[in-house]
Each structure stands twice: as C-alpha cells, then as structure tokens.
C-alpha cells in the first residue's frame, strides 16, 4: 500500500515530537488525512479524527500537543 505522507517535527515545552500525517481513501467522500504522533519512539494516543486537508490535520495535532504539554501534571497520592 503506497500512502501519501508528510512528517513534521515539533518542539514545545522542552519536548520533541514527530507528527506523521498520511492520506488514505477511507473517507466517505474520498481521501482523508490521519496523524500518528510520536515522542521518543512512543506513539501517543489521541482522539483526533480524520481531516479533509493536510494543514487542518497538522493544526489539530499541534492543538492537541500544546494542550497536553500545558496541562497540569496529575496529582498522585
């Protein structure tokens, strides 16, 4: 399977991430973009749905990452 894909590196809050956006034909109206977000070789779970365009796909990934990094650390008992 040959997918169209684009990578973006992002450093935020002293952390480095790689975002890979790939396009497939799974959309009801044609191709859509999906993302995989990785930090230190670890994929991060996110609830980002498919996007109709690449800029929107990357923008949603950046919003997710900035919110994740800026969120207060959980309190542990």
According to DSSP, the number of beta strands is 4
Total helix count?
A: 1
Mean pLDDT over the residues: 90
Terminus-to-terminus distance: 47 Å
Task: Categorize the overall geometry.
Answer: elongated
Summed up, the domain count is 1
Explained architecture:
The chain is of the alpha+beta class. It has one domain. It is 22% helix and 45% strand. It has 1 helix and 4 strands. It has a 4-stranded antiparallel β-sheet, covered by helices on one side. A hairpin with a 2-residue loop joins β1 and β2. The longest helix has 17 residues. The radius of gyration is 14 Å and the shape is elongated.
Descriptors for this entry?
77 residues, four-stranded antiparallel sheet, 4 strands, alpha+beta, 22% helix, 1 helix
Helix and strand layout, with pairings?
Layout: E1 4-12, E2 15-27, E3 30-39, E4 42-44, H1 54-70
Antiparallel strand pairs: 1-2, 2-3, 3-4
In brief:
The chain has 77 residues and is an alpha+beta fold. It contains 1 helix and 4 strands.
């Amino acid at each position: 399977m040959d997918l169209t894909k684009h990578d973006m590196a992002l450093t935020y809050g002293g952390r480095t991430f790689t975002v890979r956006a790939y396009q497939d034909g799974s959309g009801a109206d044609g191709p859509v973009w999906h993302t995989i977000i990785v930090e230190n070789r670890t994929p991060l779970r996110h609830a980002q749905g498919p996007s109709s365009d690449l800029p929107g796909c990357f923008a949603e990934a950046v919003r997710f990452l900035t919110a994740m990094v800026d969120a207060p650390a959980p309190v542990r008992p």
